[in-house]
């Protein structure tokens, strides 16, 4: 059985859209990292923490040792600095202004584990925004969409119009690199219940 250790509705939707059946748990996880932790390391550490917390909760709730826990963590990185979820509208607007006209990275750490094994890795997608006007930023922030997203945008929403180009996995930018996830889950014996829609 596949268990998604995440409260993200975007990750749940991606897994469903790609044909997976799964259950969801979302135990609390400490997300602080030591100062100076590289983002590539940080997303893996946090994904592993989430997978571990998910396993503990799942077993406590009567789950089986051999069930597979999937967890992930996503960071947006601009010029070496991580952009998390904005604290409010003002910070969201400031983040979008910083991203305007520039290329940034979206990194997602993925961890897969059961009661005996743990595997983790990370995926990077490069995204370049076109130049954004103050009016565009204000209108987008006004929708409330940026407030629960790392980097203050969701490529699958209205902010898709801000993207000039990207290189890598689109689903990674949404929150879960499904090409990588599908490959790893297959290796762990978890297969799609139906084919991914074209």
Question: Separation of termini?
Answer: 25 Å
Name the shape in a single word: globular
Round the Cα radius of gyration to an integer and report it. Answer: 17 Å
| Sequence of secondary-structure elements | EHEHEEHEEHEHH
Name of the CATH class: Alpha Beta
Q: Architecture, according to CATH?
A: Alpha-Beta Complex
Work out the strand percent: 15-25%
How many strands? 7
Which parts are unreliable, with pLDDT below 50 for 5 consecutive residues or more?
A: none
CATH topology: Maf protein
Structural class: alpha/beta
> Count of helical segments?
6
What is the count of structural domains? 1
Largest sheet data: 7 strands, mixed
pLDDT averaged over residues: 93
Helical proportion, percent range? 25-40%
Key phrases:
198 residues; alpha/beta; Maf protein; 7-stranded mixed beta sheet; 6 helices; globular
Give a structural overview.
With 198 residues, this protein is α/β, with parallel strands linked by helices. The protein has one domain (2-187): Maf protein, CATH 3.90.950.10. Helix content is 33%, strand content 25%. The protein has 6 helices and 7 strands. The protein has helices at residues 9-17, 39-60, 89-99, 134-142, 170-174, 178-187; strands spanning 2-5, 23-25, 68-78, 81-83, 103-113, 118-129, 163-167. Strands 1, 2, 3, 4, 5, 6 and 7 form a 7-stranded mixed beta sheet that branches. Strand 3 (68-78) and strand 4 form a beta hairpin. Helix 3 (89-99) crosses helix 4. The longest helix has 22 residues, at 39-60. The chain starts with a strand and ends in an 11-residue tail after the last helix.
